[in-house]
Specification:
It is built from 11 helices and 8 strands. With 265 residues, it is an alpha/beta fold. The structure holds 3-methyl-2-oxobutanoic acid and sodium ion. Belongs to the PanB family.
Length: 265
């Protein structure tokens, strides 16, 4: 079997097929999603919060993204792997973006990269696409700009909605193969999805986008504390793992692990 390609993704939109995307940050987790048939896996810089212990995505480095992306590629055989370009690895301009994306493609083996920004990133997207690197864009709430915009719903009000539409068209014109819409009103995301010929990937963007993405630790219940309203929790891994670990600890303290069946003679 071969990997899913960006061409398969384009065909899905033509056929009106919706598809799921999940983040992953390590080979083991990614292999579960690959075996489950998730067509696109994003090595998101949400690794900053969800895997590396930072408070935001801002500190994540290209070295870290390269290491995590390589692990996800090694753990999978069929999924298209998209590597996130972290903050500071493409804002200087198209040449910096190409140098950074090239590392993710050559050293990690990703099939595509993602970067944040609409009109402001269109030159970066264009050069990457010309160089043969498929690009997923990301507009609406862009977490790398948290210090400037906070974590607020984007595209509310006529002016902001028009800007989001301009951003969506700009990334499509620049050659992006898909665009993430994060935390935008469902009606606006539906309009963007109708207007564009490339697929939209929603997170907190309602039901009408072509694809849906969730952060894996959120959807499987591993993230501590409250998760955003747009997350559906499909499992409670934090409780499952916590209970299992406590049972192990009790067994060791109480002398009921290991038993003879776990021992060699
Ligand atoms: O880093 C990430 O997980 C993302 C998704 C939320 C789209 O960018
Ligand atoms: Na991201």
């Amino acid at each position: 079997t071969r990997r899913i390609t960006v061409r398969d993704i384009a065909l899905a939109k033509d056929r009106g097929e919706k598809w799921p995307m999940l983040t992953a940050y390590d080979a083991m987790t990614a292999s579960v999603f690959d075996e489950a048939g998730i067509p696109v896996i994003l090595v998101g810089d949400s690794a900053g919060n969800c895997h590396l212990g930072y408070e935001t995505t801002v500190p994540v480095t290209l070295d870290e993204m390269t290491m995590l992306s390589a692990a996800v590629v090694r753990g999978t055989t069929r999924s298209l792997i998209v590597g996130d370009l972290p903050f500071g690895s493409y804002q200087e301009g198209p040449v910096q973006a190409l140098r950074s994306a090239t590392r993710l493609v050559k050293e990690a083996g990703v099939g595509a990269v993602k970067l944040e920004g609409g009109e402001r990133s269109h030159e970066q997207i264009r050069l990457l696409v010309e160089a043969g690197i498929p690009v997923m864009a990301h507009i609406g709430l862009t977490p790398q700009s948290v210090n400037a915009m906070g974590y607020r719903v984007q595209g509310r009000g006529e002016e902001a909605a028009q800007q989001l539409l301009r951003d969506a068209k700009a990334v499509q014109d620049a050659g992006a193969f898909a665009v993430v819409l994060e935390l935008v009103p469902a009606e606006l995301a539906a309009e963007v999805t109708r207007v564009l010929h490339i697929p939209t990937v929603g997170i907190g963007a309602g039901a009408e986008t072509d694809a849906q993405v969730l952060v894996w630790t959120d959807m499987l219940g591993l993230t501590p504390g409250r998760v955003p309203k747009f997350v559906k929790q499909y499992a409670d891994l934090r409780t499952v793992m916590g209970d299992a670990v406590k049972a192990f600890a009790e067994d060791v303290v109480g002398g009921t692990f290991p038993l003879d069946e776990h021992s060699v003679h």
